[in-house]
Amino acid sequence: MSYLKYLRAAALTGVLVVPVAFAACGGGDDGGSSSNGDTTAGRAKGEEGVPDGAPFIDQNNLKFIPTKITANAGEKIYFKNSETALHTVTIDGKNESGNMKKDHVFEWTPPGPGDYKITCDFHPQMKSEVVVK
User: Fold this and answer.
1) In sequence order, what are the beta bridge partners of 55?
2) Cβ atoms of 81 and 23 closer than 8 Å
3) Could you tell me the residue ranges of all domains in the chain?
4) Which of 31-35, 45-49, 93-97 shows the lowest mean pLDDT across its residues?
5) How many CA atoms lie within 13 A of 105 on its CB side?
6) CATH topology of domain 24-132
7) Contacts 24+ apart (CB under 8 A), 124-128
8) Which position has the higher pLDDT, 70 or 39?
C-alpha cells in the first residue's frame, strides 16, 4: 500500500500508526545475515574500515554477528556498530572500545591465544566469543 493510500485509509478509520525510533535500543535489519554460528576470519562485503579477510564481528539488531569467530594469534579483530544504538565491546569484563556510535569501527588485538568473551555494557543479551589460536 502506498503511503498516500495508507494515510487516506488511516483518516477514514481514525487509526494512524506513527513509527517511533529509540536510538538507545534501536534495532534494524541485519542486512540479511543469518550467520550467528562459528566462522573463521572473514568479513562482510562493503564494510568500510575492515580489511579484506580480517576477523570481523558486526553489532546489529542488538546482537553480535556472528556469535563466535576464530582468529590467529597476532591478528586484529574488527568490530563495527551498524545501528543507531550505542554499543560497547567489553572483553572479559573490561570495556575496551568505549561507547560506539553508528558506523564506528573498533580494532582489537588479543594479547595471546585463548577464548575471549565479548559483551555489550548497554545490552547484556549481546554476546560473542573470539577463539584465538
Assistant:
1) 42
2) no
3) 24-132
4) 31-35
5) 13
6) Immunoglobulin-like (2.60.40)
7) 125/62, 125/63, 126/59, 126/62, 126/63, 126/64, 126/87, 127/64, 127/67, 128/57, 128/64, 128/66, 128/67, 128/68, 128/69
8) 70
